[in-house]
Amino acid sequence: MDRSNGYEAIAEQFIAARNPEMGAAMVRAWVDSLPAGASVLDLGCGHGEPIGRILCAAQCRIFAVDASERLLAEFRKRFPAASAEHAAVEESRLFARSFDGIVAWGLLFLLAAETQKLVLGKAAKALNPQGKLLFTAPREAAAWPDAMTGKESISLGREVYRRILVAEGLALEQERRDGGGNYYYFASKRGRAGL
Fold first, then answer.
1. Is the model's pTM score more than 0.85?
2. Which terminus of the chain is more solvent-facing, meaning fewer CB atoms within 10 Å of its CB: N or C?
């Protein structure tokens, strides 16, 4: 069974096609909101562009997990000081740790609906007090074939994601869309004054 949702088979194509600036501004702003030397878990880290590079530049302590052996090998080559695990994110042992930040860029919607809920719950539990979560998924509930693998992608939609976050003790603090049409959810264990 392919735990990488098709990305192991197209790893080289993904590396070549990934725009290193797509999402970079949003991730940089999020990283700037974390404490100095923050511990950050990158879920579905891929080969590390641009998130691993941004975390490294900000001198974060990087923990990463990906289900694609090829993408993870490239990540490890680029960021040898990071702690990286080869696993499906929902099975990651890294959730036993605690983090100042957890990021899941371009990942959640690749997972089945129940797995998305499971991962968000594990992320919430692994965040330190004041910890922050950043993830991407379309605002609208929808299903579509992934542009690179053709496998089904599923967005639960903004209202369902908000309900999951609140149920897990997180506040949805902000939502934004970038120039490429990617939709970002910024959540935190800080307070309950969400959108």
1. yes
2. N
Question: Is 195 a residue whose pLDDT tops 70?
Answer: no
**99 and 131 in contact (C-beta within 8 Å)?**
yes
Report d(CA 66, CA 144) in Å as an integer. 22
Amino acid letter for position 46: G
Domain boundaries, given as residue ranges, for the chain: 11-188
pLDDT at 190: 67
Count of alpha carbons within 13 angstroms of residue 109, beta-carbon side: 27
CATH of domain 11-188: 3.40.50.150
* Cα dihedral 95, 42, 32, 184 sign: negative
Rounded to the nearest angstrom, the gap between the alpha carbon of residue 168 and the centroid of all alpha carbons in its chain is 17
